[in-house]
Amino acid sequence: MKTLSPLQQERLKYQPKLPESLKAGINKLVCVEKEKTEAVKDKEQIKELFAKTYGQAIVEFAVGTEEKASGIKNVGVILSGGQAPGGHNVIAGLYDALKQANKENKLYGFLGGPSGIIDGKYVEFDDKFIDAYRNTGGFDIIGSGRTKLETEEQFKKSLEVCKKLNISAVVIIGGDDSNTNAALLAEWFVKHDTGIQVIGCPKTIDGDLKNDQIEVSFGFDTATKTYAELIGNIQRDANSAKKYWHFIKIMGRSASHVAVEAALQTQPNICLVSEEVEEKKMSLNQIVEDMCKIICKRAENGKNFGIVIVPEGLIEFIPEMKDLISSLNDLTHELESDETYQNVRSEEKFKIIASKLNENNAKLFMSLPALIKAQLLMDRDPHGNVQVSRIETEKLLIEMIRTRLNELKDEGVYVGKFSDQAHFFGYEGRCAFPSNFDADYCYSLGFNAFALINFGLTGYLSSVKNLIKPAKEWVAGGVPLTMMMNMEKRHGEMKPVIQKALIKLDGKVFKELEAMREEWAMNDRYLFPGAIQYFGPSEVCDLTTVTLQIEHA
Ligand code: FBP
């Protein structure tokens, strides 16, 4: 019996590329201080909450003239939140840098996400352990979790565990919520004079952890290429059989970056953009009406098929739904310990909820199909987010479109036949073998995280910039986490969190999509990107995303 597939065996041998500075060696680096920073919003509150770590300077690494010796440093690493391709390479890069700095250094991996550091569940890495995971997808090396690190008790327990293992730095690999954890932990460790540093790494397939300093979060490249391959395949199928409208919901939680990138790579007939829906204050009915117009027009041309991309978070961006969800967030939190509510059947629950909502929200809530009502009431994640991956927005749209098309048929406006297929692409892309870009980027981020640690920094996010250039020209450094923070309502309370980057409607990426939409809607301009290529010419193997190219060209 085989234990590794041929691709697995070959990928283990791949040597990720590093920026020139990091390649020179961890002990040869010099740390250059750039400009001091301020929080992106709510400056005074963030400054007060992060009195010790607020306002630090952006840093960049350059190659020095002499090689210095590094002291001994043990480091603990945590994988946090949803899986993203390349996480294993962040750990491999961190491990290699740490061992290069001093062979006596140890790297511990906390098991199952942030709860690992609280409960003292860990493994110690060695060469053999790390080598088995190089360039592989998934987070199974140590597992992941979504525990929110925020209480005094959790911080104290984490400190005890770090002291026991003589750990002087913790690396948290995560998205906006997980790096909010990193910022809180960094502040607490400084405030309590522990000498323990905390460094974050920008992970999330969602692509919403980005700003002027962070060009992209890792995993976005591989996940979007995986979804684009699948969409391309479905487009071929649709164009061959010419009998189905495919509604494809694409993961990415709130922001529509993943859906838009997948659309730019494949050119479907329709790509909804949540941020546009919000900005134009579109109702659910309006969205349906607009889509029906395209479906009717295509039917007139004899085309009873098409491809619709639906961003995962759409439902939360439809103003009327947003208001409803916000009320439901507070209500579900309030009813968490209400035994009567918890023990009644769904239909009763819906009535109780409706009785506590204002008139408009109650009407909207009760008008939704039972399936969607139930999905809207499901548990929030530990950070207070609605679990949009479990709300079948694509089915809600299909249902409403079918009803509307029947009406239009009766009016003689619709002359076609509507047969639908619903898909959800999310988990398919989160653990794929990292593309060469993600393999290189992640390895660099991990290696760079240790460089930040070696210079005694804390409360920083590992940053590697200039990403549309070849890897040797990438710029490695660090960005203070407090710079990305603002205050937002979570579980009914205002909390400091890293601000999510949404699609900007005046940005170059959206403009590009907007300019092509009409053409894509009527004249099938499908692109078929095919599978990610790991071996072969650089033009296909080292391609960055369209988003990155447009934003940084
Ligand atoms: P992160 O912010 O943790 O990276 O989340 C990524 C993500 O894949 C989202 O796109 C999705 O909505 C969510 O995780 C699904 O969560 P879960 O894995 O708990 O089902």
Structure write-up:
This protein is an alpha/beta fold and 553 residues long. Strand 3 (74-79), helix 4 and strand 4 form a beta-alpha-beta unit. Helix 9 (220-241) crosses helix 10 (257-266), helix 12 (284-300) crosses helix 19 and helix 16 (346-356) runs antiparallel to helix 17 (359-367). Helices cover 44% and strands 16% of the residues. It has a 9-stranded mixed sheet with strand order 1-2-13-12-7-6-3-4-5, sandwiched between helices. A 4-stranded parallel sheet has the order 9-10-8-11, with helices on both faces. The chain has helices at 6-12, 20-23, 43-49, 87-101, 115-119, 127-131, 152-164, 176-191, 220-241, 257-266, 274-279, 284-300, 314-317, 319-334, 339-343, 346-356, 359-367, 370-376, 393-410, 427-430, 436-454, 508-522, 538-541, 546-552; strands at 29-36, 57-63, 74-79, 107-110, 122-124, 167-174, 197-202, 245-250, 270-271, 306-311, 420-425, 460-465, 475-480, 485-490, 493-498. It binds 1,6-di-O-phosphono-beta-D-fructofuranose. The site of 1,6-di-O-phosphono-beta-D-fructofuranose (FBP) has 14 residues, from loops.
The distinct ligands, each listed once, are: 1,6-di-O-phosphono-beta-D-fructofuranose
Compute the separation of the termini in Å. 48 Å
User: Which residue ranges are poorly predicted, with pLDDT under 50 across at least 5 consecutive positions?
Assistant: none
If you compute it from the alpha carbons, what radius of gyration comes out, rounded to the nearest whole angstrom?
24 Å
Largest sheet: 9 strands, mixed
Q: How does the overall form come out from the CA principal axes?
A: globular
User: What would the average pLDDT be, to the nearest integer?
Assistant: 96
Strand arrangement, largest sheet?
1-2-13-12-7-6-3-4-5
Give the amount of beta strand, in percent.
15-25%
Q: Give helix % range.
A: 40-55%
According to DSSP, the number of beta strands is 15
- Structural class by SSE content: alpha/beta
Number of helices: 24
